[in-house]
Every structure is written in structure tokens, then in C-alpha cells.
Amino acid sequence: MRRKASLVLLAFAVFFAALSPLLRWYAFPRLAKIPADQYQDMVLEAKNATLLDYGTMKARTVPEVTIVQTLKGNVEAAKKIEKTAGRDVVVWDGLSYVQGPDGKMVSRIPERYIFDAHSQAPVHATGEMVDGDPVKRTGIEFKWPFLTQKRDYEYFDAQTRTTNPIHYKGTQNFRGLEVYYFEQTIPWTKVKFPRTMPVQGITPESVAKTGTTRWYTTVRKFWVEPVTGAPVYGEEIHKEELRGGTLLGGRDKVTAFAGHVKMREDYIRHTVALVKSNRTLVLLMTSYLPWGFLTLGVLLLALSLWLEARSRRPGDPEPAESTTAEPVTA
């Protein structure tokens, strides 16, 4: 019985030992994915910001500028792209909507971002765009990969349509979570006017005829939870200027927008709670279960060997044959 029990335990030990790397290296890349139908929104604010009054073409200080960012998963578009991409794809239709303190639109820039559901690497397909302009992204945008590393990444900037390094600056604690802090600086760069202008009747083409150009710079900051790769907080020190041309009435430049943009408090709390719950699920597949199965396999192997050793111990010695001489009879 001991021999049979040891063989059964040995079989379970091999099973759990083999299951450990399979869960981490085979199941995790196939199960940990961004849902194709995910919808999320975020509200950011810039207090005491500088904003251009297009009526007077003068910059003024306003109490608040609000930026609403939405990302909506397009399931139908993702399925079409998957047929040729040969992998699970997510299509996010995004919108960055900026409004002033009076609720009027300052700018609206739509995007379509197509990426691998697990690695978050860009997938190039028809429809990838920023504000109607076809783009071919390199690097990440919005989200870091699962199991983010302590290194620099390439990050796509929608305003300039370019990819630039975003630098790992250290590990911090943010509301009970260990996070990696990343920072990116985009120097002053000439960028396009949005297709939708804040003043009715004015188009990017009509502004271009005046010779006035739009320039932009920002310092982008993210605090990223490394297990999920999700930013739990973000800020931007954002500046835009109009330069030259007859539209400015002889001035060299005027500030179109300047402000320190931060996530609104209620969205910070919601994001932190969501990331904490998703973090546990990722850790189950990458750490808790693989190490648990491996430890269980080692314990079962040790128990199997112990039972096998006991089954092989010699038993009690058999009684020795009698050497007493039999009586001789005549």
C-alpha cells in the first residue's frame, strides 16, 4: 500500500511542478488581456489656467479648464482586424475634449488606437488615426504593459504625432500601492491646428492663410502600477502658443493655453480601487499560483520519497532453523 501511495503522490508532484511554468508562461499571455469592449473615462483639471479668448485674441487667467478623456472599445472593428492580424486586438476610439469655465468647447481631438490585447504593442491597420490624420504609432499610449519594468519606454504623443522616450524616474508609494514614476518632456514643437476650432466659421485652413502657427510643449508625468501596467495618476504641465502671422495683430506670440493638468480626486479614488482588484488577478497567474504549485509539487515529491523509503525497509528477521540433534533410534 505504501508503494502505491508513493507512486500516486509522485504523479501529483510531477503534475503540479509542470503546471507551475505552464500557468506563468503559457496561460498568462493568453488569459491576461484588455477586454475588447472596455469603456473608460477620466476627468482632468487645470486650476487657474491661462486660456486664449478668441474674441479679443488675448490670453486671460481662468479659474478652471476641464479635460475629459474617453476610451471606448470598438468590438466590431477589432474583430475585422483580428482576421488578418492573427492575434487578439483591441481598438480604442478615444476623444480628448477640453472645455473652459463657461462650459464652451476649447478643443476636441478624436483618436483611434489599435494595439495587442496582451502586450499593448501597436497594431497597424486601416483606421489608425489622430484627429482624422492617419498615423503609424510606435511605442505605447495610455497604458503600460503587464509587469512593467524599471526602464525607459517609447511613448506616443498625439499632438506632435511622434514617439519619444518616457523615462523611469524611480519607485514611489501612491495611496498604498507601489508605483513606478515616469516622466516625458516634449520640447516646443510646431503642431497642427485641431480640425474642430473653438470659433464657428474658423477652420485650420483659414488660420493657415494668416501665417499664424501653433506650438506646443508639455512635461508628462505618470505613476504606473507595475503589475497591471495601469497608470493610477497622471499630470501634465501643458503649454500652447500661437506665433506670428496677421491673426496676432503684429505680436510675435500669444498663449493659447497654459496650465498644470491633474486628475480629479474622484477619478483618482476610482482608478486606485480598480487597479488594486485587477492587480490581485494578475498576481494569481504570475506569482501566487505558479509558486504555490511549485511548492506543492516539491512537498508531494518529498512525501512520495519518504513513503517509498519506508516501503523498502527490511522486515522482521525470520526464525533460525533448529540445530539440536535428533535422538538416534535403533
Question: Which of globular, elongated, flat, extended, rod-shaped describes the shape?
Answer: elongated
The residue fraction in helices comes out at: 25-40%
Write out the strand line-up for the largest beta sheet, numbering strands in chain order: 6-5-4-3-2-1-12-11-10-9-8-7
What does the oligomeric state look like here? single chain
What do the pLDDT scores average to? 90
Task: Characterise this structure.
The chain has 330 residues and is of the alpha+beta class. It has four helices and twelve strands. Strands 6-5-4-3-2-1-12-11-10-9-8-7 form a twelve-stranded antiparallel beta sheet. Strand 5 and strand 6 form a beta hairpin. The longest helix is centred in the C-terminal third of the chain and has 47 residues, at 265-311. The two termini are 54 Å apart. The mean pLDDT is 90.
Which characteristics define this entry?
330 residues, alpha+beta, twelve-stranded antiparallel beta sheet, 4 helices, 28% helix, elongated
